Amino acid sequence: MGARAGSPGKAMAASGFTLVEVMVVLALLALLAGLAAPNLLRLYEGFERATERGRILDQVAGLGERAMLEGVGLVLLGSDPTDDGELPGRFSHYRKTRPDVPEGWWVVVAPPLVVHANGVCLGAVVELGEGERQVAGGEIVELRAPHCRMEGR
User: What is the pTM of this model?
Assistant: First the structure.
């Protein structure tokens, strides 16, 4: 006759994990998550910054096409609303425009970028950045006439 389950002569095999083993695995996972989370946050912020930068530069690059479609000359000023963008008399009838920048970003255009109604631009230097301008400085992009081709410095 065979031994019955639970009989005193036969030892039962334990299956599964002990509580200590589960706690050690959870502690290791928490440690790894704690080390990875700041890097993932910085990675996300870097992607967000690059997206905003690209969006601003796309606005600048599209001014020639916009001027042709609207049939009017445009003058791109910086993002500072206190800058009234004094223009020489021959450009006084051109429409002034400012880049649409997210909060915390700034754009400086020197001299103001003039784009004729036919899409030809006179060239300018655009500086853009995030945070305080005096502290952070910014990226400088040169727009070369006649097509406003962008060249980084």
Answer: 0.72
- Can you list the alpha helix ranges (DSSP code H) found in the chain? 19-61, 63-70, 133-136
Distance CA 129, CA 20 (A): 51
Question: Is the Cβ–Cβ distance between 73 and 67 less than 8 Å?
Answer: yes
The answer to whether 95 touches 74, Cβ cutoff 8 Å, is yes
Res 148: pLDDT: 86
Residues ≥6 apart with Cβ < 8 Å to 118? 67, 68
How far is C-alpha 74 from the chain's CA centre? 26
Distance CA 141, CA 112 (A): 14
pLDDT at 135: 60
Distance (Å, whole) CA 81 – CA 104? 14
CB neighbour burial string for 8-26, b if at least 16 within 10 angstroms, e if fewer: eeeeeeeeeeeeeeeeeee
Q: Are strands 149-152 and 139-144 parallel, antiparallel or unpaired?
A: antiparallel
Asked if residue 142 lies in contact with residue 89, where contact means CB atoms within 8 angstroms, the answer is no
